[in-house]
TrEMBL record:
Region entry Disordered, spans: 301-327, 370-399
Localization in the cell: Cytoplasm
Domain of life, per lineage: Eukaryota
UniProt keyword terms in alphabetical order: ATP-binding, Chaperone, Cytoplasm, Nucleotide-binding
UniProt key word Membrane: no
Taxonomic lineage from the root: Eukaryota, Viridiplantae, Chlorophyta, Pseudoscourfieldiophyceae, Pseudoscourfieldiales
Protein name: T-complex protein 1 subunit gamma
Pfam families: Cpn60_TCP1
Family of the protein in this entry: Belongs to the TCP-1 chaperonin family.
Length: 399
């Protein structure tokens, strides 16, 4: 739960007063599963990590403090023409001239990049050996063929802007929000870390475990927890769990039904009885006496016009009484600390009502199928021996 809440609060981005914040956990909170280690080693980074190494490991720095990061989505290599071009070379010097032109173009591109003094260049495309040579001479580390999604996360974490052409680079495009760039070998693979960011709006969640099955299970639980945390951040209203809300609404509908006469009160009673299935199921799962538990819970909600006194003498709101999922006893959910998001409760009731309406609309078709029999069932066969006239003629001749 702490990992999920930390990740959601990290990627949260306020849009101004009166506007709902943006919490895109699918795009900016990535889970990295690394086999090995212990579950307690799982953590949320103040930045991002990705499975990459520098282009020239022996000559480019793998650890940079307070790096200036430049993000590109263009290649650092000589561009090939879109159309086929034939060049006729008459002299040996012309061939050397063509190679020199290519080298000059790459050198000019690197000079444009080096003018802004970046410590790390990350590009989504390729980086030629010649470009790596010039970058190394300038003391610049480079990472090539970066995923678009990872590049976006790095941009959010360090405050950089992805540049499309080297000629368009500006000082504001350089990311200076990261405190450390480091390449570390974990297992058999190298991972690059851009961490210790001042104001990260993207993060990586590192999961460690003994096996892939354990990691997959932890990842599923983490995604569920992040979804709950995101709902709470977007709508911070909470309701007591343990079936307390369903029982309170059921009691309110029952009281409303008493003020309505005729068949119009049937929907009130039907919906109220349907909502009681939640506390009833909780009681059944705990092995408690369902009838006694439900009767006692109804009486407590019926008596809860305001605040009452519990057995321990403390004031309790009867509307927060629900089923303890561990013991099966009726407990104050407020004191137990069991809460559910308001948005989830509302969506649950909406889905139930819409499903009921959908079934009522096709009620005639369902009834028709039941009367006619299932698909593929033919007409019932007649008995072959009704009377003496249906006896097989061959059998009669044989006799």
């Amino acid at each position: 739960a702490e990992l999920a809440l930390d990740a959601v609060l990290t990627v949260r981005q306020d849009k101004g007063e009166g506007r709902q914040p943006e919490v895109d956990i699918k795009k900016y909170a990535k889970v990295e599963k690394i086999p090995g280690g212990d579950i307690t080693d799982c953590r949320v980074l103040k930045g991002v990590m990705f499975n990459k190494d520098v282009v020239v490991p022996g000559r480019m720095a793998r650890t940079i403090k307070n790096p200036r990061i430049l993000l590109l989505d263009c290649p650092l290599e000589y561009k090939k023409g879109e159309n086929q071009t034939n060049v006729e070379i008459m002299k040996e010097e012309d061939w050397a001239t063509l190679l020199q032109m290519e080298e000059d173009w790459i050198a000019n591109t690197v000079e444009q990049i080096a003018a802004f003094k970046p410590d790390l260049v990350i590009t989504e495309k390729g980086c030629s050996d010649l470009a790596c040579h010039f970058l190394t001479k300038k003391g610049i580390s480079a990472i090539r063929r970066m995923r678009k999604t990872d590049n976006n996360r790095v941009a959010r974490a360090c405050g950089a802007t992805i540049v499309h052409r080297p000629e368009e680079i500006q000082e504001s495009d350089i990311g200076t929000g990261a405190g450390l760039f480091e390449v570390t070998k974990i297992g058999d693979e190298f991972f690059a870390f851009v961490v210790d960011c001042a104001d990260p709006k993207a993060c990586s969640i590192v999961l460690r475990g003994a096996s892939k099955d354990v990691l997959n299970e932890v990842e599923r639980n983490l995604h569920d927890a992040m979804g709950v945390a995101r709902n709470v951040v977007l709508d911070p209203r909470l309701l007591p769990g343990g079936g307390a809300v369903e029982m309170a609404v059921s009691h309110a509908l029952s009281e409303s039904a008493s003020s309505v006469s005729g068949v119009e009160q049937w929907p009130y009673k039907a919906v109220g009885e349907a909502l009681e299935v939640i506390p009833r199921t909780l009681s059944q799962n705990c092995g408690a006496n369902v009838i006694r538990t439900m009767t006692k819970l109804r009486s407590q909600h019926a008596a809860a016009s305001g605040s009452g006194a519990g057995s321990d003498g403390t004031a309790r709101d009867g509307h927060t009484m629900g089923i303890d999922g561990n013991t099966g006893e009726i407990t104050d959910m407020k004191q137990l600390g069991v809460w559910e998001p308001y948005a989830v409760k509302v969506q649950t009731i909406k889905t139930a009502v819409e499903s009921a309406v959908l079934l009522l609309r096709i009620d005639d078709i369902v009834s028709g199928l039941k009367n006619k029999g299932g698909p593929g069932m033919g007409a019932p066969k007649k008995s072959q021996i009704d009377d003496g006239e249906n006896v097989d003629s061959n059998m009669a001749l044989a006799e």
